[in-house]
Design goal:
- The chain is an alpha+beta fold and 132 residues long.
- The protein has a single domain, classed as Outer Surface Protein A, domain 3 (Alpha-Beta Complex), CATH 3.90.930.
- The protein is built from 5 helices and 5 strands.
- α4 crosses α5.
- The radius of gyration is 18 Å and the shape is flat.
C-alpha cells in the first residue's frame, strides 16, 4: 500500500516582505489590447500529465497545448500595465490609489488580491528584492 505524505507547507512571506516584492509578467503570456483599452491575456493551459494520459485513453485530444484567455477590466488593465518587473507591489499600490482616487488600504486589498490571482494562474511571478 502506498502512503501519501503531505508536503511541508511553503514558508509564507510576511506582509511587509510581500509588498516589497516586484511582480514580473510571464514570458508565456501574450496580450491583446482592445479598442476600449482593456487587455485580453492569452496563456498556455497546463494540463497535469496524469490527466492528459487519462484523456488519451478515453479518446480525447492528444494535443495538450491548449491556451486560455482572460479579459481584464479597466482596473485590472491598469494594474497589469503597472507590472514591469521593477516596481514593487507597494509602489504599484501607491500609483493605483492615486490614479483611481482610492484610500491606500482599499487599493492594497484590490491590487494584492488581483496579483495573487494572476500568480495562481501563472501569469506573474514575484521577485524578492535583496537589500544589502
Amino acid at each position: 500500500m502506498k502512503v501519501f505524505r503531505k508536503s511541508k507547507p511553503k514558508p509564507r512571506l510576511s506582509r511587509t516582505a510581500a509588498l516589497e516584492c516586484c511582480p514580473a509578467k510571464s514570458i508565456d503570456v501574450t496580450e491583446l489590447r482592445l479598442d476600449s483599452g482593456d487587455v485580453i491575456l492569452e496563456y498556455p493551459l497546463t494540463v497535469r500529465p496524469w490527466l492528459a494520459s487519462l484523456a488519451r485513453r478515453l479518446g480525447g485530444p492528444s494535443d495538450t497545448s491548449q491556451t486560455k484567455k482572460l479579459q481584464l477590466d479597466a482596473m485590472g488593465t491598469a494594474v497589469w500595465d503597472l507590472v514591469d518587473g521593477r516596481r514593487s507591489v507597494r509602489r504599484i499600490i501607491q500609483i493605483f490609489a492615486k490614479q483611481h482616487r482610492l484610500d491606500n488600504k482599499e487599493a492594497e486589498v484590490s491590487v494584492t488580491s488581483f496579483i495573487r490571482e494572476l500568480g495562481k494562474r501563472g501569469l506573474v511571478g514575484l521577485k524578492e528584492i535583496v537589500l544589502e
